[in-house]
């Protein structure tokens, strides 16, 4: 698998279809497909890297790395790690996460966070295998548009 950071110039119609398909696999059928322009805008956003894994020129996995400079130091969050259903179990998720860890080190972050739903058993096992530690915290969400 080839892994690269996507720029807005890397995203065309085919990439938009693949990224939307991956997000649907991650988020379910309720996911609203993003437009080509929305994906391009995201790829160009400061403090955010869209990372894609390619097999034979086709996007088969993706993740998002975003970092923040805060009073407590530079932190980063790993978001939306997903590998296409047809390619799971081949080690691609591990390659993607390892590459993201390398990228986070280069940006000199103090730590890298992620959340993973307990039902994603394979993903949770992978993170623990790679040295991620479970945090003792409560995660809260406030819905703005109720």
Automatic annotation (TrEMBL):
What does the record give under GO molecular function?
Answer: acyltransferase activity, transferring groups other than amino-acyl groups
Q: Which PANTHER family match?
A: AMINOALKYLPHOSPHONATE N-ACETYLTRANSFERASE-RELATED, AMINOALKYLPHOSPHONATE N-ACETYLTRANSFERASE-RELATED-RELATED
Q: Which organism is it from?
A: Candidatus Spechtbacteria bacterium RIFCSPHIGHO2_01_FULL_43_30
Give the matching InterPro entries. Acyl_CoA_acyltransferase, Bact_Acetyltransf, GNAT_dom
* Origin: domain of life: Bacteria
Protein's name in the database: N-acetyltransferase domain-containing protein
Pfam families linked to this entry:
Acetyltransf_1
Domain called N-acetyltransferase: residue spans: 1-146
Q: Which UniProt keywords apply?
A: Acyltransferase, Transferase
